[in-house]
Fold these 4 entries.
Entry 1:
Amino acid sequence: AAKGGAKTITVAQAADAVTLDPQKTNDTASANPMQQIYNTLIDLTPDMQLKPALAEEWKQVDDYTWEFKLRKGVKFHNGEELKASDVKFTYDRLLDPKTSATPAFLLASVKEVKVVDDYTVQLVTKEKFAPILYNLTHIGTAILNEKAVKETGDNYGVNPVGTGPFKFVKWDKSSQIVLEQ
């Protein structure tokens, strides 16, 4: 039931999500709720142009290095502030073969993720890779909170923590995923 003038919106899907860990799947039924829970560094406009999301700006430092300036004051749903260390943790986890990340191919060109300061991160690629910015708009590259992932371990996919417009509340398998603003 809605409280204090809040509205309830119900969205029906043909299938249940597989997981709410964006690194562990690449299916639409999982992506739909994840796009409400998480943000990526860069987003797309309706006409497919790049626009700032968690990164307020970015620049190409050289042929192999992209630098991203993070928005200050962004909070994860657990109250932790978004820092460059979360971006490095996220992308290192995505690329770690032990993670067996389904969307790892999106960043396969990345050789290293460097933290410059709390709000600046660099991606260094192995070769010139033109689609890197568009790949960073995919939900598979959504930024995770290091503390939340480490605290929940293997259960992270049913306890997601993001910076998106909606916070995860609960998941009744094969029935409903509840999010709140």
Entry 2:
Amino acid sequence: GRPFASGRVDAIVVDPRAKCTIAVASGPKIYKTTDCARSWRSSDFEANITALAIDPTSSAVYYAGNVNGDLLKSSDGGASWRAVRRIDGQRIRRVLATGGPPTTVYAVTQSAGMLRSNDAGETWVDLRKGMEQYEAAFDFKAIALAPDHPGTIYFAAKYGILRSSDQGTTWQPISLITAPGSVDIYSLAVNPKRSDEISYATATTFYKSSDGGRSWVSKKLPTSRAASVMLVD
């Protein structure tokens, strides 16, 4: 229904402190409800919003990214926004905020790697240097954080899957059944209570490792469609 009867939704976030507070990115607008979608208000932007995140330590702080490479921050629950970083010509695919203080924020681009902020989005570090040795590592597919090991990131790209244990400064490849660059990974998930339990899916197959990627089991998906999203309870 309104306001999403037509158009495209690129991102949704739910306030972890208030389940009826939801923000939605649709085209050049961010919609927000505080009453479980009974009513909405919107903020308008010049470019399509493609990524959203909420600070898990503060319901007032939101982050967003757009199709032009602008990273935006709101400190008043989405009522007003300011640009905190620009990555020219790069679509922002994901923004992730982890608990602090201070809050760590990651921004993932479509084809230019990642950035990290350790001060709630005020300054940023480019993380491309640690990835550039892996061919096609900048062709982003999916990302997952390990809640039980802060600073551990799993990053899926056309290359395969890379793992970092130091907030993205350095990366190591995970050995997969599939050869590097041979398949497209559509989704990736990590068990929030056991970060060595990793799952990913291609267009046809589900893969799971329970030992940090040293060994894998696979199952064909019961569908002709790609598994574009994966979650672990």
Entry 3:
Amino acid sequence: MTRKVGCWKGWSFTALLFLLLADISSVAAAGPMAYVTNEKSDDVSVIDTATNKVVRTIRVGKRPRGVVISPDGRRVYISNGNSDTVSVIDAATGKVVETWPAGIDPEGLALTPDGSRLYAVDENGGTVTVIETANGATAATIEVEAEPEFIAISPNGQVAYVSNETSSTISVINTASLKVVASIPVAKNPRGIAFSPDGKLAYIASEQTEPGVLSVIDVAKRQVVKTIQVGERPVGIVVTRDGSKLYVSHGKSNAVYVIDAHALAITNKIEVGQRAWYMAFTPDERRLYVACGRSDAVSVIDVAAEKVIATVPVGKMPFAVAIPR
């Protein structure tokens, strides 16, 4: 018996093979997704970093700001300031699968290194809400100081630093006891925080000084050991994996400053969109994505060339970016 090959419900074998190869090619081309919170459109834009195109828009709560991704990349957490909640997004489907209470006006978010607890900074509540990610239960509500904004957890997971904008302090939380163990004075209106990879230093951006100030805290001593002047209204900070460079975004200068972390010297100024806020690296650190609120866009920086190579339109007033690392 002769079997006919090359026909299936009107499709030729060649056409089916072409479609299969095209599908495989498209999957291979997809890069890590960048999740961008948009304060004024109440949604999250998802950018494929391989193409720098928005591939999905996800509705969340009101005034989304903070965003973090679970260590396994399966969950994306969004703080909704005007809804007093955290939205939990399934990264595979792009659907909100849970919504958790998160104190009054949550803004900054941080996860413990193992992803078991989510810390949400409650700006108008003057607190930090600690949430168990396994079930959304509140593990603790920790009082900090006036108008807390941002939070970062040390690489070893032992302490969390909270920037208190009105108090011009950093609250140090012991993550084992869930209590504030120190308050460190810094320059006026601290916002962004980043730890050095070894956890020995913490970098703080203070936006309301003229010009802006970057403070360096000795984590063991719990005190500021160095400061440098930067541009106008510094907010976001990221550190390279090897700890050699800092990138600081500036809301009024509309730029990202490149800083030699060892010399604490500015080496370049990269012009980006308006109101440059929080940022994220791709896993290979070849690109840096910057939320530019008043441009309704994300500026994409080629890290080696130190220049913007793409501008991606997103929702209204983008605030922060997170990319799985």
Entry 4:
Amino acid sequence: SGQAVARLEDEQLLTGRGRYTDDMAEPGQLHAAFVRSPYPHARIVSVDTAGAAGMPGVARVLTGADLVAAGVQPIPGVAGFRRPDGKPAGGPDRRALAHERVRFVGEPVVAVLADTLQQARDAAEAVYVEYEELPMVVTPGAALADGAPVLSETTAPGNICAEMSHGNAQAAQAAFAEAAHVVRLRIHNQRLAAVTLEPRAVLAAPEGAGSSRTVLRMSTQMPTGVRDTLAAMLGIDNTELRVLVSDVGGGFGMKTGLYPEDAVVGFAARELQRPVKWIADRSEEFLATT
């Protein structure tokens, strides 16, 4: 038997006193806007940020190459899974900003930081990225076919990141062999994209008062996971980061873990020693939650 747990949040939410990430602001904060890949698979030939960097209010333009040069590591993959050969699960490096190659539509390629959101968005439109389009597939079956384009030749040959099996394969084959009837069915599972009332949001700022710590205010379901992942990417102790969560307008599992935009905002706040804020708009939410 269980016991009902009293809800504590209803009064403030129903009376309009909720506190979400976008309700918060820091003095002198910058706003981030992202240039995203229009291709599902392409090589990044060149990135021209000169025009954007000279526009009003722009404090910094970041590329994937900038983050690599600063030592920012790829986002760690999921632990605990194995490949068919027994090696740890592998896949293409997922970086906070794409470097050398993009692998899905909407992947962030360049970040623009400016005094206002409109200035950041205007400057993002002035960034020129030259791509060389590469072959792509859109279904698991096509990805496993002979000759399919491979997303990571070294860590996921054959486009297989991980594989596992359970039970007794020989016993299962024997049961099918003896069955009076065998039914085969191919099922296509649709994409599921969570849509929350509050989009993903992050505000990172130096803690101040002589502290080297950075404070991130986020709409997330897993603050300690975000903290530890970002610390590993930046090569710092996790005590150098603090992640705070106020009210969250829906999550549904979508707001677990760290996303590339979170890492860029955290890195930029530490590098520039200024607050940086990013709130996804609806088109970004659909493209970036992959």
